[in-house]
Amino acid sequence: MENQHPLLPSILHSTAKLSDISSDEIEEFLEYKNVSFKVYLKLFAWESRLLWLLSGAVIIVLIFNYMLGFVTLMFVGHLGSLELAGASIASVGIQGLAYGVMLGMASAVETVCGQAYGAKRYAVMGVICQRAILLHLGAAFLLSFPYWFSGPLLKAIGQSETISEQGELFARGLILQLYALAISCPMQRFLQAQNIVNPMAYIAVSVFIVHVVITWLVVDVLEYGLFGAAMAQSFSWWLLVIAQGLYVVFSPWCKETWTGFSMNAFNSIWPYFKLTVASAVMLCLEIWYFQGLVLVSGLLPYATVSLDSISVCDNNSMNYWNWDMQFMLGLAAAASVRVSNELGAGHPRVAKMSVIIVNMTSIMFSTIICIIVLIFRVGLSKLFTSDSEVIEAVSHLTPLLAISVWLNGIQPILSGVAVGSGWQAVVAYVNLATYYCIGLPIGCILGFKTSLQAAVAKAADRLKEAGNRVNEDLVDSP
Question: What is the pLDDT tens value at each position of the chain, 478 positions in all?
């Protein structure tokens, strides 16, 4: 059977370049079952090459876009602990909500534009991007109200008046960033669907460098304070939008997909709106689930310790957790593009192969990260604290962190596959069932009805002793 296949020589040829093998050849070739292991290795290398060409640049974009806010908080931290607390709670409670909505809605662009690109319906892609920007701007207008009135909202969730005031000041300075995000997210997905990722990486790195300089000038030199830091972040995001927009309009690589502004963007907006809503719900259900766990932990005995334990785990683990998450989101974006492109081109077998290979890649990477976390859990804790009691407490939680990191290598990839296939509505129901009908109840049972409650009490005593030692050191210090 294998010798009779007409495409086998071109795929097996040792001197044939992977870039010379087309998806059409692979799709036809995958119809045959009896294929040697050597051929599968070449197919693995062919798909891996495409995945890494996409995901490598996307990971860079995600990291440097994330670092815009990270650098802003670094400079805000030098203004004072109150300003940092206000900016941090606004970033998590207010800005996190907007990010979830915007990024979720943008996944609809990945689905439709990716499949249109695979089907070679290039002119439709520009119209889809414009339609998405219109809907995103409408969502940004609605979300600007929570930004403006974030002070009362933060007080409603238990924040002090002083922290709420600082959070409101910071959030109001980020309203302009919200509208920049409404334009940038669809454009990024528009370019990703065409496999145009390297220019986005160059733009992200360049804007990050400019952002560091601008934030330093605004905060340290001109001393415009917390509001100035927020405005600097908004300004940097608008630089990102302008650079991406100029590339889309003037790049020869987009001349077939962007043919100018069109009134067709207002046509058939309702079906697309339903897809964006499903996309936003899919992602927001994940974000709100973690926020719900924090709220539930506040109802536990030793509520302060429970919440502080989450903070301790975040401070010690979020650094390498975030790097792992950016990596996985990059792979998920690549999987979404690959699946949508191949489905649009009528290559279901290649799409299935892509799903298998990207999951194998993410599982291998997550396994390596888990091993590193488990082996060096004490050393990693010492990077952030020198208190032996805290190191011991965090070490006990490290196995749970390792499990979370490993599962984190699977879930984002499957979400990316769902986005590429247009299954956002289905995944929204899955998230609702698994997170809220299964996850939260199990968390409540473990926290309120099992011996884990005793572990909280023991942790309370350890952290209380550590806190007393810190207070004594502060009193004794000049």
Answer: 444 455 454 555 555 566 667 777 777 777 765 666 777 788 888 888 888 888 888 889 988 998 898 899 889 888 887 888 788 878 877 887 788 889 888 888 988 998 899 888 998 999 999 999 999 999 999 999 999 999 898 888 777 788 889 989 999 999 999 999 999 999 999 999 998 999 999 999 999 999 999 999 999 999 899 999 999 999 999 999 999 999 999 999 999 999 888 888 888 888 888 888 888 888 788 777 766 665 565 555 554 444 444 544 444 444 555 666 777 778 888 888 888 888 888 888 888 888 888 888 888 888 888 888 788 777 766 655 555 665 666 677 677 777 777 877 777 888 888 888 888 888 888 888 888 888 778 877 776 776 555 455 555 555 455 445 444 443 454 4
The pTM of the full predicted model, rounded to 2 decimals, is 0.79
How many other C-beta atoms can be found within 10 angstroms of the C-beta atom of residue 422? 21
Q: What is the CA radius of gyration of the chain?
A: 24
Q: Tell which residue, 91, 108, 64, 288, has the closest CA to residue 174.
A: 91
Cβ proximity of 285 and 432 under 8 Å: yes
Query: Is 189 within 8 Å of 340 (Cβ atoms)?
Result: no
The residues, ordered by sequence, that sit 6+ positions from 172 with a Cβ below 8 Å of its Cβ are: 147, 148, 150, 227, 230
